[in-house]
Amino acid sequence: MNKYEALMSKCIKNAYKAKGSTKTNPLVGAAVLDNNNVYYGIHEKYGFAHAEVNAINNAGNKAMGSELLVTLEPCSTHGKTPPCVEKIINAGIKKVYVGVLDVNPKHAGKGISILKNAGIQVEYGILSKESSLLIEDFIKYHTKKLPYVTLKTAVSLDGKIAAYTGDSKWITCEKSRQYVHKLRGFSDAVITGVGTVLADNPLMTNRVYKKLNQPARVILDSFLKTPVEANIIESVNISPVIIYTSKNIDNKKADILKKKNVEIIEIDEYNGFLDLESVLKSLYNKGFMNVLVESGSKVNGSFFDNMLVDRVEFFTAPKIIGGENAVSAIGGRGISCMNDAFVFKSSTVKKCGDDVHISARITDYTKDVIEFTNNFKVE
Ligand SMILES: NC(=O)c1ccc[n+]([C@@H]2O[C@H](COP(=O)([O-])OP(=O)(O)OC[C@H]3O[C@@H](n4cnc5c(N)ncnc54)[C@H](OP(=O)(O)O)[C@@H]3O)[C@@H](O)[C@H]2O)c1
What we know:
It contains 13 helices and 16 strands. By secondary structure, the protein is α/β, with parallel strands linked by helices. The longest helix is centred in the first third of the chain and has 13 residues, at 3-15.
């Protein structure tokens, strides 16, 4: 790894610290390099200054004639903040090193062109794989027009999520359960099925990581069976509650829920269940970039059957539950032959208290961005 790759790696690591605070904005890290002094910056929060602006501000007058590294192409349009390319040009930066180009069509390649045309040297594609992994949710959001879907489950060693009686408290240890609050804090919405609402009466809020996001709660409930006094409904003041339901619902119940400020959205069905792609499209239209599926066997199974899962977070406890009638983590139809099994693109395995935490990517949105970055030429 050369000097610039090592610095870019540090910028990427720094950028991850803002996970859960940037909403639909990407995670971005930057550094100004003035001889041997380094001034870092990250995009900390949605609506706040971008990473390169923070790095330049930290460098102060040392930015003049220095080099800048940034994990993502600097923006070139006015959004919540002025364009970063202006700041870079005005600061007198002489060379910019970029991780990957922006997939957002408003920016794609434009920032690079503006900098080059202003006489600044630009190199791009520095640690492009790692830089694009940092923003995989953002890439999917802009290229597929759908939220990035993470599915979390807490299982016993034999893959069960409850005993045959339905009892499920608790399978995993305290530390794993705390970590789930962090996953909620990284998400714009938590999706659950009415089966889980009826069985566990959960809140599905982030009650541990106060600086992270408080996600909206989404219930998949075709017949509005969610009790009006359910904990999720009663806590609507903490974060919004949306129920996706079928088109043949009891209007009286819908009215009671609406009066409690619950949003009811009727959606098409597919194979006897609510159409999950329509649900995700609707959540995309609400500006949700990251959703966490925290459901029972049926909803989990449907997400896999419809190939809608991007990432899994499995917490596996050193326990055996057993029982033919005890539900397993992923229901649905499943695959018919091993060749069709979902294979991880990459994974990490760590101990979490007494449990094993497997975090794994199923989809890969980095390829197109790396290719676009590598093939981009300034006209
Ligand atoms: N260990 C864990 O991590 C964990 C997490 C959550 C839950 N659980 C356990 O899971 C058990 C509940 O599992 P479950 O399978 O009954 O509940 P679920 O998956 O949470 O909910 C299933 C229900 O959701 C509705 N639904 C709407 N659209 C759907 C779709 N596209 N696909 C599938 N279902 C859809 C269906 O009811 P309608 O037809 O009425 O709409 C379905 O019966 C409980 O024992 C709970 O404790 C464990």
